[in-house]
Amino acid sequence: PEAPQASTDPSYDAAVKAVKAKQFTVAIGLLEKVVAANPNNADAFNYLGYSYRQLSDFQGSLRHYTKALSIDPSHRGANEYLGELYLKMGDLKKAEEHLEKLNSLCFFGCEEFDLLKRSVDAYRLGKSGASIY
Predict the structure, then answer these.
(1) Residue 50, C-beta contacts closer than 8 angstroms, at least 6 positions apart
(2) pTM over 0.85
(3) Which of 87, 97, 121, 132 has the highest CB neighbour number within 10 Å of its CB?
(4) 8: left (phi over 0), alpha (psi -120 to 50) or beta
(5) How much of the chain, in percent, has pLDDT values that exceed 70?
(6) What does the alpha-carbon distance between residue 58 and residue 86 come to, in Å, rounded to a whole number?
(7) Which candidate, 67, 107, 81, 83, places its Cα nearest to that of 4?
(8) Is pLDDT above 80 for 19?
(9) Which burial class, exposed, middle or buried, applies to 18 when counting CB atoms under 10 A from its CB (0-12, 13-18, 19+)?
(10) Where are the alpha helices (DSSP H) in the chain?
């Protein structure tokens, strides 16, 4: 995943680097510090959700994506990733709800919609838990 914006927080920047390097346990430790200092950082909660999902901790992932969306309901990354999580959990209906949300957020299309749509389509074809991640 790409960092949504430039940051002035060295812990956040280090966490993004750890996520990109697939060092999810390291990223989680750093991101927990970020959200402790800034509990309204939707991007950090989104990365926490992503990191927990990559470690197959679906409940931890769900908790953090939900928090990101409570801060910013229009967060495209959190909507996409939560849809991906729901597919991994076998809940196509909830994944489709996030696909619809992205459809309404992305008037002229966006990468997040396209990625989740591909995963939903693959899931519908019987590739249970299919994801591009």
Answers:
(1) 1, 19, 61, 81
(2) yes
(3) 87
(4) alpha
(5) 89
(6) 9
(7) 81
(8) yes
(9) buried
(10) 10-20, 24-37, 42-54, 58-71, 76-88, 92-105, 111-124
Locate 54 and state its tokens. Answer: 């990559």
Q: Contact at 8 Å (CB) between 46 and 5?
A: no
Quickly tell me which residue has 């909507």 as its tokens: 79
The residues, ordered by sequence, that sit 6+ positions from 46 with a Cβ below 8 Å of its Cβ are 64, 65, 68, 75, 77, 78, 81
Integer distance in angstroms from the first to the last C-alpha of the chain? 10
Q: Which residues contact 67 (CB under 8 A, 6 or more apart)?
A: 45
pLDDT band at 131 (very low <50, low <70, confident <90, very high): low
Asked whether the beta carbons of 112 and 102 are under 8 A apart, the reply is: yes
